[in-house]
Amino acid sequence: MPEIQNPNQQSGGPDSRTLLIYAVIFLAIFLGLQYFRSKNAPPAPPNGKHTPAAQKNSPAPSAAPASAPGQTASGNAPAAATTPAVLAAAETTTTVESPLYRVTFTNRGGVAKSWILKKYTNDAQNRPLDMVNDKAAQQFGYPLSLYTYDAALTQQLNQAMYVPSATGTIQAPATLTFRYSANGLTVEKTFRFEKSYVLETDVKVTRNGAPVTALLAWPSGFGDQETLPQYQNAQIDQETGAKTGFHLAGGPNVKQIEPKKVSGGDTVQGPLDYAGVSDLYFASIFLPPNPDNALMVTLHHALELPRDPAHPKTSKMDQVPVLGAAVGSTTGEVHDRLFVGPKALDVLKSIHTAYHFNLEGIVHYGFWGWIAKPMFLVLQFFHNHGIPNWGWAILLLTLILNAAMMPTRVTMMKKSLAMMRIQPQMDAIKAKYAKYKATDPRKQEMNKEMMDLQKREGINMFAGCLPMLLQYPLLIGFYRMLEVTIALRHAHWMWLPDLSAPDPYYILPIFVVVSMFLVQFFTPSPGVDPAQQRMMAFMMPAFFGFMMLHIGSGVALYWAGGNILGVGQQWVMNSTGMGREMKELAAKRAARKRAQGGKVINARR
């Protein structure tokens, strides 16, 4: 029998040969890799120096821009190596100042960290308003930062240490330039300030000599938005018109986009005569020199704010939209003018686009603009010609409007007297059909007889509503005017610190209730159902008083002033022969009602 042997004990057996083969293959691979590395290694720099750090940190080929026609990607590499580095060693600030503003820049990103408007104060503190919303800007970017379609590049551009052309404080008119260059990336941002609210901007970004599309941004709302109510009060109201949002203008027409319809990162192509973002009273609007080539990227972020600012740590949090805009051109460079300032009509009228349109359209009065804007222009005329206080100007306008409506009050009183004269006949017709139910067809005959009687006497029962119908559009128009007019922001009168805010002491709302009750008491209402009389005498004043608790005190001042004038006018008219006759007829009707057991609301009528 052949001898049986253990293969594992055989010297030079199959396992030993296998291990030897693996070792040879591994050695061959290792030597091959070393040879390949030596063949493809870059040549050593002269003088035996190592490659600079700038080359080690150069962008990966995938991040490089497409090569220019006739030039390979490798042909751009020497540009990155030879571009001299321009970057600051430490953070510094530069302040540009004029009688209207004080703008403080930091060279970290070449952005504005503060933008003070000297003629306007903050809502919460009586100090100059800072247009920079610092809380939002810390998260979403500061004004005059750059936006690109590459998030990593955007962050690099806005965190780079630029070299400013000046530090400290400089007076407008002035030019301030920020430069940065490293790793083939070159940036130059130039801002030319005049003494107005408009500055000129120039931005150029290149990478390895090729242009990069970079847009100049105002990304984080405005500094007068600090609390939840300030954000909520400045949101879009579809019925009365846009108060805040994006403003896009192609020619004289302005398109406004409300926050909920804005998607962050969307690109809006030209033509754009101007484009930007605003809140209730302030705006940042870019004015491209070539509207056809302009483009804008909409920026929409969300910021959490406490419902109770006094107790932010324990209060529930709500999210509010923070809007911004980045504007540039299809050429990749930015050469725009930028308006940063108040939405004051006289200021906006003086600013013109490349096609000579002004910025007046960003003040949006809504549907009632045909009333609201003329009312403001009249108020402004009063204020600029002898009445320096807006509250007194409002009262003067109230006096003029009520004087203009005086003929309608006289007409109303004549119609009321005519109605009172035929009231016995009307009562007789009602008594004739009193036995029939309301669903009985014969009730229609009663209505026809009453209408025929009024027609024969030349009476229109709705004519008495004319003064009230005229007052309501004026009230709504005044409310819209007061709501969007920055001239009335923080304007004081007597005990009122701000005519655009509710009365903090509730004096005017109470005055509105009392004065409106007196108007209802003294105004004749012949033929009105007692239930309707009670509503008019009590419910309407209570409703308007409640409404005045929550709207600007300037509106309450206008309404209360009109009520007092109305009481005076009605008292005078009640003292005339026509008024005395109405009083006698009302007394006779009241006596009949009492004899029949009915209720009387106002025996003087």
Automatic annotation (TrEMBL):
Topology of this chain in the membrane: Multi-pass membrane protein
GO terms, biological process: protein insertion into membrane; protein transport
Subcellular location: Cell inner membrane
One GO cellular component term noted in the UniProt record for this chain: plasma membrane
Chain ranges of the Membrane insertase YidC/Oxa/ALB C-terminal domain: 390-574
One GO MF term: membrane insertase activity
Transmembrane intervals: 19-36, 389-412, 458-479, 505-523, 535-560
Pfam short name (any one): 60KD_IMP
Chain residue ranges for the region called Disordered: 42-79
Residue span, Membrane insertase YidC N-terminal domain: 94-377
Stored InterPro entries: Membr_insert_YidC (IPR019998), Membr_insert_YidC_N (IPR028053), YidC/ALB3/OXA1/COX18 (IPR001708), YidC/Oxa/ALB_C (IPR028055), YidC_ALB_C (IPR047196), YidC_periplasmic_sf (IPR038221)
Start-end of Low complexity biased regions: 52-79
Keywords (A to Z) from UniProt: Cell inner membrane, Cell membrane, Chaperone, Membrane, Protein transport, Transmembrane, Transmembrane helix, Transport
The protein's role, per its UniProt record: Required for the insertion and/or proper folding and/or complex formation of integral membrane proteins into the membrane. Involved in integration of membrane proteins that insert both dependently and independently of the Sec translocase complex, as well as at least some lipoproteins. Aids folding of multispanning membrane proteins.
Subunit structure: Interacts with the Sec translocase complex via SecD. Specifically interacts with transmembrane segments of nascent integral membrane proteins during membrane integration.
Family recorded in the similarity comment: Belongs to the OXA1/ALB3/YidC family. Type 1 subfamily.
Name of the protein in its database record: Membrane protein insertase YidC
Gene behind the chain: yidC
